[in-house]
Design brief:
Blueprint: H1 2-18, E1 26-30, H2 46-55, E2 60-63, E3 66-69, E4 72-77, E5 83-88, E6 91-92, E7 98-99, H3 101-112, H4 130-134, E8 145-149, E9 152-156, H5 164-167, H6 178-184, E10 201-207, E11 211-216, E12 230-234, H7 239-247, E13 253-256, H8 259-267, E14 271-284, H9 291-297, H10 300-308, H11 312-318, E15 324-325, H12 341-344, H13 357-371, E16 381-386, H14 389-406, E17 410-415, H15 417-425, E18 431-436, H16 467-478, H17 482-499, E19 502-514, E20 519-521, E21 535-537
Parallel strand pairs: 1-12, 16-17, 16-18
Antiparallel strand pairs: 2-3, 4-5, 5-9, 6-7, 8-9, 10-11, 11-12, 13-19, 14-18, 14-19, 15-19, 20-21
Helix pairs in contact: 7-8, 10-13, 16-17
Length: 538
Amino acid sequence: MKRWIAMLLVFAMTMMSMAAFAEGKTLTWARGYESTSLDPAESSDDESNNIVAYITEGLVRVKNNTVVPGIAESWESNEEGNVYTFHLRESVWSDGSPLDANDFAYSFFRLIDPEQGHNQAASGFCVLNAEAYNAGEAAKEDVGFKVIDNYTIEVTFASCGMENLFLMADNALHPVKQSFVEEVGEGYGSDKDKVLGNGPMVITDWLHESTMTLSRNENYWNKDAVHLDQLIGMCNVSGDTAVEMMMTDMVDLAAFSDPTYYQQLYDLGFEGITYTNTDQFIQINQNGKTEETGKFLSNINFRKALSLAIDRTALVNTVMLGQTPAYRVVDPDAAGVEGKFVDEYPLEETINVTAEPEKAREYLNKALEELGATADQIPEFSMLCYDTQGNLTKLQAVQDMLLTNLGIHCAIDPQPIQQMIAKVYSSDFDFWTGGVAIGTVDVASPSGAYSYWDANDPDALFGYPNTEYAALLDTAQQATDYKTRCDAIAAIEKIFIDEVPTLLLTWQTQHVLYRQGITITNVDAGFGADLAFVEIAD
């Protein structure tokens, strides 16, 4: 009954949001949760990042693993690939005011300004001396982001390599308008009237924790490529609610990873697109939430014991339905040099897909001996997660496996999305469950989530004190040929298996289904900002 009441409330709010748009093509999609911030320098969760990519645009875009023009209509680089010159097209903000190279420069230096402390500042550290400037160790004029004239920008990167051009597509490097930001102040990005963009869509209505309506930006330079008149995002719609709303045509599109939900729709004749997008993991904070827990979590043998105590196959069969046990980091569909990566780079040792309790206890005893501790001195650990039933049941299963196989106690800490993100960034956890696309080697995410564990990056989300790992990541990032990159990723993968910096669990496949009676085309794998460019045929 509560679920149906919630649906009726959402439906009523949606009808109010759609009332002003009786004509034109509209796509309504299910969003998992509310956006936290639409400031490119602050946006740090998927639901925020997707909206930022709808309403703003950087120098370039990435579509189907290829860099395509954005506000920069062309570019060239030096032979080494560390200096790029971008030539901007004449374009405007969504309010019709002109946009030029100075807007990008303001936005970039705002991002890395040490006094502002933006969440996504590290996204700018690919530029020469940007990290030193952020640390107060370099002057602004030493940073490799230069305005040549109103429509030309020269970017000197901190390293050479195939990834540099792709890095410029990062949402954090999208522009914001200085006068508007200064007028709004600290609340920038928190409401429809407190954000201004230059992308294919604009926010015309935002009822927090309910609906967000985006309409085509008539001032967008490539507006003819935007075939929808509006996108309506329905907040907090997932699982059973998403299925029921799809069946009653209340939403046009929803994503699922659990066959409990998507199979119902397939059986009814719904169509969809499938793609493998993330490794699901439980991140280990090796410093610990407390000094006491950090003492144990920093020990390699203790982490190996944790991994061996987890039955990944049982998780897939019970609480992570439709996923695949991750026996290695790189997913089985990832491309190698000539064939599949997993075939070209076989492993002598893989991640256990079933629990190995006896072996787990052997490693635990080794850890206790190294730490000079006894089993009764192992503290209780905190397991942080976004407060959804799926996360809770997953962590409850892992919690039980660690207790049964190792006698280790954990307390689950479910939090709303904003509070969870804050705790992740402040390392206020022992374990945190999440998912990132680290199972790829393609250049669309050249440093990808591997950089989260980069010991050389003081702002890395997790950090991992392994200089070999950092050197290999640097090699992968600077590689000018794909084989060198694959070789480095293969070595990084071995470190993940040997030293367990995180507890990899599964590879997750997303099924994005759309309403019966329509056909959706021109979609990039994984959707992202290209949802703004889809075509719908009735």
